[in-house]
Amino acid sequence: MRINPIDVLLFLLLKIVKFFDGRQADLKYFDPETVKNILVVSSTAIGDTLLSTPAIRAVRERYPQARIVAHFNIKNMELFENNPHIDETIPYHGGYKKTFKTIMEFRKHKIYLALIFHGNEPQATPMAYLSGARFIVKVPNTSEYRFLLSNRNQIFRWEDFTHGVEQRLKVAELVDCRISDNRMVLPLTKDGESAVNEFLENSGIRETDTIIGFQTGASTLSRMWFPDRFAELGKRLINSYPGLKIIITGSPEEYEHCRKIADAIGKRAIVSAGKIPLNYMPALIKRFKALVTGDTGVMHIAVAVRTPVVALFAVADPGRSGPYYDMDKHTIIKKDRTCAPCASKKCKHQTCMENISIDEVFDVIRQAIFKSR
């Protein structure tokens, strides 16, 4: 494993700074009544950040007087710009990019409490500490930077939590928050609904048409189902349901990938990749009768707007990262991993996904979504 000298230098520097830091930062000294400025960190992928929104709601409910500053990934922060529980967002640029500038932005807000819901080390905890925050809470708290945390005396590991939402809610609970709702927060906007209506109308889709969405891409190859299987599934659905339209979602970079699948399906398949911006995706997915997807951030958008999902899992554990509620709406197709040990996110193969057949997915859609046998 290659050691980054910057990581080593940062670690040693923080050890020294923390040694001379005279502030009483353990949670036993935490007084909820003194909280004025809060930093909430969820700086990774779309789904990871959506899973943090129930905890952020709980923080807002407990600290209505506080200013809440969010640190979200610049690649997806536009999706959360209408979150009613956040006052301001400061972007995470990835790795050490613009680290000094970001820390200076944090320090302007006189952060008192930093809550790390999901973030990569060695950036998340050191940056929270360098923000000037007196109290820093993170779960799990087993990394080499736990000496900076206010909750370091009680160990929490990933395996202590069934689902990612529960892990994030634990962070909120540790700072005196009560959990009233575990649903994700993703408001629709009028601008988004208007743009989606225009896109659908221009694509020949009427208000009464039934739409099935296909999210064909994923963050890793091992989580992607095969393009030819999506294409064949689309053909079967269109042949079985005459009024059905299929929309293939994706990022602008995935346009060609999506277009090839749409071309293989035929005229009633439309590509939205590159045409609908990320912050309008909730309004689009809200119009779907269902979304067929792997373990993706778009899956969590669908869950947030209460669109049924048919989720295809092999490498990941749906109990930890799949739909968390409304389980009567959603169907998970889970296959066993084919390799041991599993390379998980680092896997560059689709061997596990080969076990999910077109017949199985089609039957699930027919039975669970269209209620036909």
Give descriptors for this structure:
elongated; alpha/beta; six-stranded parallel beta sheet; five-stranded parallel beta sheet; Rossmann fold; about 375 residues
Short description:
This protein is of the alpha/beta class. The protein has twelve helices and eleven strands.
Describe the model.
Strands 8-7-6-9-10-11 form a 6-stranded parallel sheet, with helices on both faces. A 5-stranded parallel sheet has the order 3-2-1-4-5, sandwiched between helices. It is elongated and about 70 Å long. The model has no long low-confidence stretch (mean pLDDT 95). The protein contains 12 helices and 11 strands. By secondary structure, the protein is α/β, with parallel strands linked by helices. Helix 2 (46-62) runs parallel beside helix 5 (164-173) and helix 7 packs across helix 8 (255-265). The termini are far apart. Strand 4, helix 4 (124-130) and strand 5 form a beta-alpha-beta unit. The longest helix has 17 residues, at 46-62. The chain has 2 domains: 5-173, Glycogen Phosphorylase B (Rossmann fold), CATH 3.40.50; 190-369, 3-Layer(aba) Sandwich (Rossmann fold), CATH 3.40.50.2000. It has helices spanning 5-20, 46-62, 99-108, 124-130, 164-173, 190-202, 227-240, 255-265, 281-286, 297-304, 318-321, 358-369, and strands at residues 37-42, 67-73, 88-92, 113-118, 135-138, 210-215, 244-249, 269-271, 290-293, 309-313, 331-334.
Question: How do the strands and helices of this protein lay out in sequence?
Answer:
Elements: H1 5-20, E1 37-42, H2 46-62, E2 67-73, E3 88-92, H3 99-108, E4 113-118, H4 124-130, E5 135-138, H5 164-173, H6 190-202, E6 210-215, H7 227-240, E7 244-249, H8 255-265, E8 269-271, H9 281-286, E9 290-293, H10 297-304, E10 309-313, H11 318-321, E11 331-334, H12 358-369
Parallel strand pairs: 1-2, 1-4, 2-3, 4-5, 6-7, 6-9, 7-8, 9-10, 10-11
Helix pairs in contact: 2-5, 2-10, 7-8, 7-12
